[in-house]
Amino acid sequence: MAIEQEAATGLEYCELSHPFGHGVPVWPGDDDVLIWRSVYHARDGVLSQKLSMNMHCSTHMTAPVHLVQGGAFVSQLPIDLFFGSGVVLDIPKGKWEYITADDLEAVGHIVEDDDIVLINTGWHRKYSDSLEYFGEAPGLSEDAADWLIEKGVKLVGTDTAAIDHPMATNLALHRGGPKMRYLPGDYERDTGRDPKVDFPKWHPAHKKLLEAGIPTISNVGGDIDLISGKRGTYHAMPWKWWDGEACVINLVAITDPSGAYRIEKGVAA
Known about the structure:
Blueprint: E1 4-5, E2 12-15, E3 34-39, H1 41-44, E4 48-52, E5 60-62, E6 83-90, E7 98-99, H2 101-107, E8 116-120, H3 131-135, E9 139-140, H4 142-151, E10 155-158, H5 183-191, H6 195-198, H7 204-211, E11 216-218, E12 231-235, E13 246-248, E14 252-255
């Protein structure tokens, strides 16, 4: 874990993305990410690769159209949504817990209007192809989504595979689930509660954010612990993908300890 400093400006950069490549954890039921060499050095003297994947893997951004008919595609979102001031909120959570409005209220005094807000539950440390990471994760409650919308934030990310509680997704009993066939039974056995009663809605928190025009980031990771509880500038730029509903991104936090850095004016040299 490390923060890299640029010598010329003193700016500090912190990587908040999980690695991307062959064998990355994918949403249960999705095909693996496939990467293969179409040409290679031994035969062709050059390397070029091809890619087949679902964009909802690794650290990725989701556009409103993913859950909202008529919502904006990736290429239709203003680019200023993906760069700007924001904060990482430190809200540790365990198995099947909710991130609630009360949790946000307790630490959210540093959230400002038009912020990028990332939530560190500690779950990124469990990132793997596992029942635990996908099926036992915490999730954002509906009242937490309402809190973020009322605050006027412009982008929301979590260090979990989904914005919502896994029981509110097709990993459990929604939309053709369970994709993790043991999950509903495990929940009922461990909690003594019926998942159909506790989670009657499908992706309720995620849908609220997207309906409000707030894109989301899932699988936040990297060195997020190094900047938890801190404000900074965040870069989360997706591809300009026509008709895309999601996109893998490189998520970076930028801080300026000296306060001396200013971007160029854009005038002719």
